[in-house]
Amino acid sequence: MQFEEWPEAMKVYDKRMTELFGIQSPSWSQTGNTLSVSFSKGNHGFKDSKYFLEPKGQVFSHLTSYRGLFGIINSGSFRLYNLHNSNDPNELFSLKGVPTYGDAAENVKQYIHTFSFCRPETIENPKMWEEYGQVAINFEIVNDSMTWDFYRLSPMHYGENTLIPMYSELLDELHQSYPDWHFEPHLESLLSLLSFHKEGKHEHEQEIRLLHIPFLFDDEGTAQYDFRVSEYRTGLTKFVEVPLFVGDEAKPLISKVKRHDPPPEDNSRPLIKITSIEFGDNEPNFQKETFTDVGYELEDYLVAKFGYPIEVKAELFKTGVAKS
Questions:
Q1: How far apart are CA 301 and CA 259, in angstroms?
Q2: Which of 180, 238, 244, 282 is 20 to 30 A from 315, alpha carbon to alpha carbon?
Q3: By the 8 A CB rule, do 211 and 82 touch?
Q4: Which helix (H) or strand (E) holds 20?
Q5: How many CA atoms, within 13 angstroms, populate the side-chain half-sphere of residue 97?
Q6: Angle between the 8-21 and 163-177 helix axes, to the nearest 10 degrees?
Q7: What is the distance between the alpha carbons of residues 45 and 290, in angstroms, rounded to a whole number?
Q8: Phi/psi at 174 (5° precision)
């Protein structure tokens, strides 16, 4: 059905949704007297909204542990864990204000996969190193984010989500104007926005989030299992992988290891290229003399695995964290 053929109530619902969220609604549905509008599955659909970040020409930083660093190097990928793995038990907190879905957060977290990072200047905050690790992996996103499907990139928004009360009021207003129609929230579309909101106490993180929601209640068999232990949740956790860029422009001097296979050409998902690695000075057993030897050997190993030079910064990053 062409949009012009939809009932007036649907046209008004679509118009008001676009005005409220700043996002075009390319899909509409009707079941009986229930109307729903949904947002695009592609990253391009959010370009003119606050839920979009253009990565071209930017460098990002991901903090991790020594073990996490070598897990990434040896697998040749970044992992996007589902929200059960988050250190924030109140992820999706603003979903509580959405009619019908106020209690849905815990049921949908397992289908929402994220990878968190920040701008390089954010890791100058000592609290980031205290909370998240001993190594910074700096990287670029080297393909066109406008071609991604089911992957989204946005800065996080902190504090109260004022859009949700406004959305709830909109639904009430529409029902009063069109009492014969029921206006249903589209859960997947709302999650693609609400996953970019956190409580204000996390604002120091200045997080940028890569989000993957394939299909709600169905990961299509793309996810794998890991076992995670934390104060918030212990148990099996699912993740999906985004393979890293692999080149063929340099050969190692010493290391004789198998190079990662270049990822298949697939512009529907992000392609990430590591540019450099910085070790923090917040590990008391990691002395300057040890670090110099590690740096040279690691750079050679990185060439062996990825086929291009990746700089290991010559100086330990001054984290500002007191060594115990």
A1: 10
A2: 244
A3: no
A4: helix 8-21
A5: 17
A6: 160
A7: 49
A8: -65, -40
CA-to-CA distance for 304 and 178, rounded, in angstroms? 65
Q: What does the block give as tokens for 220?
A: 């299509």
Are 52 and 146 in contact by the 8 Å Cβ rule? The answer is no
- Kindly tell me the burial class for residue 49, based on how many C-beta atoms sit within 10 Å of its own C-beta (0-12, 13-18, 19 or more): middle
Are 13 and 178 contacting, i.e. CB atoms less than 8 angstroms apart? no
Beta pairing partners, 273: 140
Strands (E), the chain: 27-31, 34-38, 60-64, 77-82, 113-117, 135-141, 151-155, 157-158, 182-183, 197-198, 208-212, 224-228, 235-243, 272-279, 311-312
Task: Give CA separation, 242 vs 81, 153, 160, 266, 276, in Å.
Answer: 11, 14, 31, 11, 18
Minimum mean pLDDT range among 7-21, 198-212, 225-239 = 225-239
User: Rounded CA gap, 119 and 137, in Å?
Assistant: 11
Measured distance CA(291)–CA(312) in Å, rounded:
10
Residue 269 tokens read as: 């998902």
Please count the residues of the chain: 324
**Amino acid at position 272, single letter:** I
Q: Are 273 and 212 in contact (CB under 8 A)?
A: no
* DSSP-based three-state secondary structure for 181: coil
How far is the C-alpha of 29 from the C-alpha of 38, rounded, in Å? 8
> What token pair was written down for 36?
């729903």
Q: Which domains does the chain have, with CATH numbers?
A: 1-39+160-195 (3.30.70), 60-156+200-324 (no CATH)
Residue showing tokens 């990825």: 306
Angle (deg, nearest 10), helices 66-75 and 288-306: 20
Range from 81-85, 97-101, 154-158 that averages highest in pLDDT: 154-158
Q: Is the pLDDT of residue 75 over 90?
A: yes
Half-sphere exposure of 42 (CA within 13 A, CB side): 14
